[in-house]
Write a sequence for this structure.
């Protein structure tokens, strides 16, 4: 296996070039569809107080705010937070630069969303800390949606790490992957190019079973878990490429 990246890879990964690629790569209708799912399954009342963590460049936070919700978006990337703040003119949204575990823990949020497959960034101890922070942030009766594409039930059936090339505008990305069996994690190596710019970076996605995720959230006050395979509401099944988990904070 080639060089192993730092476990805190996410501290330096999300600079302008990768962020700009993903800002371009996701069509607006995908964001609308995802927030439709959140509102539908959490039954958000008008003007709900919603935590979006990590929020990246703010696409979900901004859509929630456009619908009249009061939103706090938290992300560690200075570039992403700067972009989100510039895009938020006139909307009721507060963007905070911080680690995903350093979220407000006063229990005042009506809902929290963790979208975009960032739930697997952390090793198990870090993920426990994040689950505890979510449990302390959301009020009793409030809701949670987690978007996770690295569940073991998604990744392991028929796993193959095929090289990929992706383009959006003048940005090209070459991606390769490795599965670290001993660490139950995937290494995704990217080469971003734009004109004369070139950036080589590696992401780690830790692979957890659905049962592990449910147990972690249950340990920190979340119950009534629903497991969906997409925004259409189909049940999650082995081999499904995406897990959308919905839960309710107990009293």
């Amino acid at each position: 296996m080639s060089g192993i990246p730092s476990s805190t890879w996410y501290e330096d990964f999300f600079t302008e070039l990768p962020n700009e690629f993903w800002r371009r790569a996701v069509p607006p209708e995908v964001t609308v569809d995802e927030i439709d799912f959140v509102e539908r399954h959490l039954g958000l009342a008008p003007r709900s107080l919603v935590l979006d963590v990590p929020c990246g460049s703010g696409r979900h936070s901004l859509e929630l705010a456009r619908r009249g919700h009061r939103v706090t978006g938290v992300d560690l990337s200075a570039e992403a937070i700067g972009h989100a703040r510039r895009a938020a003119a006139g909307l009721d949204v507060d963007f905070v630069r911080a680690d995903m575990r350093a979220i407000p823990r006063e229990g005042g949020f009506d809902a929290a969303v963790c979208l975009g497959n960032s739930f697997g960034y952390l090793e198990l101890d870090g993920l426990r800390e994040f689950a505890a922070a979510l449990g302390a942030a959301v009020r009793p009766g409030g809701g949670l949606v987690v978007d996770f594409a690295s569940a073991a039930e998604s990744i392991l059936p028929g796993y193959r790490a095929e090289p990929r090339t992706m383009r959006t505008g003048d940005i090209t990305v070459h991606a390769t992957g490795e599965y670290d069996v001993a660490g139950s994690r995937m290494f995704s190596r990217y080469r971003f190019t734009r004109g004369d710019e070139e950036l080589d970076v590696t992401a780690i996605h830790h692979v957890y079973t659905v049962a592990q995720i449910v147990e972690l959230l249950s340990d920190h006050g979340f119950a009534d878990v629903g497991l969906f395979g997409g925004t259409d509401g189909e049940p999650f099944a082995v081999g499904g490429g995406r897990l959308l988990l919905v839960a309710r904070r107990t009293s």
Observations:
- The first helix runs from residue 10 to 13.
- The chain has two domains: 10-151+208-249, 155-204.
- The domain at 155-204 is CATH 2.20.25 (N-terminal domain of TfIIb).
